[in-house]
Design brief:
Chain lengths: 299, 633
């Protein structure tokens, strides 16, 4: 009996989940509601079966997520019975941060990066799982599975701990934390293959449907609520679209697609000629922007 | 595209994915010296297997114009050098992981740095790889890093090597150059224990012999690189090796369930099989193999499962469930090969944390047997192991661990060394064998014991450990304390730094390694004296936290009192009772604490004495009063 490629990736991730549960006093899983989070949630349920995962799930809400994401999140928490924490940066709310007006960079910094730091400090978490994969982006390709953060939540890419075998250094001093990436070695194709194989529930936005969108800066932006102000030459049109990744709706471009089943999504993916992060405005603001965000404490 | 997706549709996707699933996976790394073209080679592999998306290609073209070193052509290295500093400097600093697939296999590639100062990152990539591509620049031939990386690959248990003689276009595709480099490489690599070494002449920049055989080199009749990567046999003996299951986590959701969670590191196990708890040698049977998807009848190497045993036996994290007929060794003394990563050298005698996959114990390096010169592979006697050094040492553990020799099992034979204060990963080790000493030297139990000796003296034995700069007043104050205790009828002894260096420690100098050994010996002597029932006053500069902690841990709780004699260095230099500061300032004394060697201040001393403005007599009285309050006197 030989384990398949996916079996090995699954076992590696389960091993990582258990290392964290055994070594940290107060871990948390960052739950961002996307497909990678759905896979992580599924793996966490597997790792500790028959027990429930011995840690809570945290969603750092920017208040600009698609409405369908929020209802999916609440349904999953109810169905699986996990402990869901939601944090919204109160300073950002007071400042009335708006990605349209303040730009994606500032919005992401305040609502996601700072919001996350606030939540980690508030609950005193010493380890946080994230769904980042090494195939997503160049600076992520360089990151460890157990990635050390200083007391200020910053990442120093030049002095990462050597990570040998699967013998992880899980030790931190008070106030220091570790970000843990169980999906480091998964590719986008692996994620979809696994969702299909395990029949994992995902947000319906991944499937093609008629949705109201406008074209802006070469991207198809979905009009998810009435906070979206139209420019004078913009028109809302119903188009058959879906999303390859999910984030804040004003910053996430849809793609035209007819893929309304998992099988069709995978087939479409296999012939895709652009990377999934192309739909993300935040990566393109400036060169090396993901590395910069990560140094500041973004996942 | 290597994957034929032209005919993929939702209808046959399930069949397609099933075919994908059963592909094998090869993990390999690229290594070699700076500028040998490692990143370019990986960029080329990704490009030629059509794994680069259009938006990435557009970004690459723009980056090539900005930072590229390939003139008008696309600089493939920029695809993998992901950190800003790397792109600016045009070098690889950290290991990057890349993923690609062909019709036959899936690949995970670790692209590792060539600079010597980043050797730790190369070792990181090698620790999980099955094969290494060692690149050599045709114009440079075999270099120091070629040898170093080949040696580390061998040390970490990599069995297959591809010697990629790169930039062959720059020497006119000359076979003589290729043959010369291959002969040089084989001359030293033949002794490194590799199963296969395949030399290939190639040009990563122009794609010669990468995916298909190049027409430029009719004299080469071997496979192209990718053909070889697709067909090299992946060692899969792990299933035939004895069962090993390092326990990660004890799963107890309720009183009726007690399961041991972990990943099978070798062999296989089935319901009903006997298993042994490695450390206690207790035997039980497998009752259930639990997974989320249902109970299994059997679990094999690589699977993450939860095992339930028939009997209530004591098993916790760090222990292993193993095959009773072929159990791992359990020891607290072992010999290992070490690679050192940290800028501070490894110091024999210092206390570190040794972390195996699931176990963690305090350890000290009892003997550094030799360092291995990575250029000549010669063994050299050394007193410490510098950054990027490879050495062989004996290690003593505070508690026994279960292990297999690394060459038998990469997973149960490895460990990392961690700093006890910063928690940095300082080095990595591969266990050779247990030292017989652990079995043969046993503790001799004596009938008259510490308590009996202390009761006869009507006192509680203790160590008063005075630390501080030279000239801070340690010995003067300790002397005052001893006089006061003696007057009260206490049995005391004073160990003074200078005095001990006249006898027991006369062979030691003032280097970092010797200072560590100096303190270790004194701590051992103090421990014996406490065992004899004495109150011991130790007056040593003892500049390093690690060694003071080592001394503390040799004793029982409540027996060790750290007394920080806190006199500012300026004040000590002004007093200068032995004229040492004057000499140190003149450069006549090397490694002088506070001047040319560091002093690490105590973080939580039992007694913190600010000496300025107080007489030594007052301070001595204060210490005796403190001991009295503690019930020590």
């Amino acid at each position: 009996m030989h384990l398949s490629h996916l079996d090995r990736l699954e076992a590696e991730a389960i091993h990582i989940f258990r290392e964290v549960a055994a070594n940290f006093s107060n871990p948390v899983m960052l739950y961002s509601i996307g497909k990678d989070s759905s896979v992580m949630l599924h793996l966490a349920m597997k790792a500790f079966y028959p027990a429930k995962p011995p840690f809570p799930f945290l969603h750092v809400d920017t208040t600009w997520k698609f409405r369908e994401m929020i209802s999916f999140r609440d349904r999953m928490a109810k169905d699986l019975g996990f402990d869901l924490l939601v944090h919204i940066n109160p300073d950002g709310v007071a400042e009335n941060i708006n990605p349209f007006r303040h730009g994606s960079n500032y919005h992401t910094h305040v609502m996601k990066t700072v919001g996350l730091r606030q939540a980690l400090d508030k609950y005193g978490f010493d380890a946080a799982f994230g769904g980042a994969r090494r195939d997503e982006e160049k600076s992520r390709a360089k990151e460890r599975i157990f990635s050390f953060r200083t007391t200020n939540h910053t990442w120093d890419p030049k002095s990462q701990r050597p990570e040998m075998w699967k013998t992880y250094n899980t030790r931190v001093n008070k106030g220091e934390t570790i970000r843990v990436f169980p999906l480091s070695n998964w590719t986008e194709l692996d994620i979809w293959q696994y969702i299909l194989k395990e029949n994992i529930p995902i947000v319906p936005l991944y499937f093609a449907a008629e949705r109201p969108v406008v074209e802006r800066d070469g991207m198809l932006i979905m009009v998810d609520d009435d906070r979206m102000q139209l420019e004078k030459d913009e028109v809302v049109a119903k188009r058959l679209v879906r999303f390859r990744t999910l984030g804040c709706y004003p910053l996430t471009g849809a793609i035209e697609s007819e893929a309304d089943t998992l099988e069709k999504i995978v087939a479409e993916m296999l012939t895709a000629r652009t990377s999934e992060r192309q739909g993300r405005l935040i990566d393109k603001d400036e060169a090396g922007s993901m590395e910069k965000k990560k140094r500041e404490g973004y996942f | 595209m290597k994957i034929d997706t032209a005919n993929v549709s939702a209808g046959n996707i399930v069949d397609y994915l099933n075919a994908q699933e059963h592909k094998s996976m090869l993990r390999f790394l690229t290594c070699g010296s700076v500028d040998d073209g490692k990143s370019t080679l990986i960029g080329r592999l990704l490009y030629d297997t059509k794994l680069i998306f259009e938006d990435q290609l557009v970004a690459l073209e723009s980056d090539s114009r900005k930072h590229g070193t390939a003139g008008e052509n696309i600089d493939f290295a920029l695809l993998v050098d992901g950190l800003e500093a790397e792109r600016e400097q045009g070098i690889t600093i950290d290991v990057a992981y890349r993923f690609f697939a062909t019709e036959k296999r899936k690949f995970i590639v670790a692209d590792t740095p060539g600079h010597e100062e980043y050797t730790r990152n190369m070792a990181t990539g090698a620790s999980t790889a099955d094969l290494a591509i060692v690149l050599v620049d045709s114009r440079q031939g075999v270099l120091r890093q070629t040898r170093r990386h080949s040696f580390i690959a061998s040390l970490l248990g990599i069995r297959h090597i591809v010697l990629a003689v790169n930039k062959i276009d720059l020497v006119g595709y000359d076979q003589a150059v290729f043959d010369g480099i291959v002969a040089d490489y084989m001359a030293f690599a033949k002794d490194l224990g590799f199963e296969t070494i395949l030399p290939i002449p190639l040009s990563a920049r122009f794609g010669d012999n990468i995916t298909t055989r190049s027409e430029q080199m009719p004299w080469y009749d071997g496979p192209a690189l990718l053909e070889h990567l697709e067909s090299v046999p992946i060692e899969d003996g792990a299933l035939d090796r004895p069962f090993r299951f390092p326990v990660q986590y004890v799963n107890r959701p309720n009183l009726n369930f007690r399961g041991f969670a972990g990943q099978v590191s070798s062999g296989r196990i089935a319901v009903g099989d006997e298993v042994m708890v490695a450390k206690s040698r207790q035997v039980s049977k497998i009752k259930e193999i639990v997974t989320h998807g249902g109970n299994l009848r059997e679990a094999v190497e690589g699977q993450a499962v939860t095992l339930v045993l028939e009997d209530q036996v004591e098993v916790s994290r760090g222990n292993m469930l193993v095959a009773p007929a072929d159990a791992p060794q359990v020891t607290d003394q072992l010999q290992a090969h070490l690679i050192w990563f940290d800028a501070n050298p490894l110091l024999p005698g210092r206390s570190y944390i040794l972390r195996t996959e699931t176990d963690s114990v305090n350890c000290t390096i009892t003997a550094l047997k030799h360092e291995i010169d990575v250029n000549t592979f010669a063994q050299e006697a050394v007193k410490s192991l510098p950054m990027n050094g490879v050495g062989v040492c004996n290690i003593s553990l505070q508690a026994p661990i279960a292990f297999d020799p690394y060459k038998h099992n990469r997973s149960t034979g490895n460990f990392v060394i961690i700093d006890r204060y910063s928690n940095a990963t300082l080095g990595a080790g591969m266990i050779d064998f247990a030292l017989r000493r652990a079995d043969n030297v046993q503790w001799q139990a004596t009938d008259v014991h510490k308590k009996a000796r202390a009761e006869l003296k009507h006192q509680k034995p203790a160590v008063l450990w005075f630390t501080g700069f030279s000239g801070s007043g340690k010995s003067t104050i300790a002397n005052g304390v001893e006089k006061l205790l003696h007057a009260r009828g206490r049995h005391t002894y004073m160990l003074d730094g200078d005095n001990v260096r006249h006898g027991l420690n006369r062979d030691l100098g003032f280097t970092q390694e010797d200072r560590v050994e100096n303190i270790r010996r004194v701590a051992e002597v103090a421990r014996l004296m406490v065992d004899a029932g004495l109150i011991v006053l130790v007056s040593f500069i003892s500049p390093f936290r690690s060694e003071r902690r080592l001394a503390r841990e040799m004793l029982e709780d409540g027996e060790f009192f750290e007394i920080f004699v806190d006199t500012p260095i300026e004040e000590c230099a002004k007093r200068d009772p032995k004229g040492l500061y004057r000499k140190a300032a003149a450069g006549e004394i090397a490694n002088f604490t506070g001047i040319s060697s560091p002093y690490e201040r105590p973080e939580n001393p039992e007694i913190h004495l600010h000496t300025v403005g107080h007489t030594p007599q007052d301070l001595a009285v204060r210490i005796v009063d403190f001991l009295h309050e503690q019930g020590e006197d």
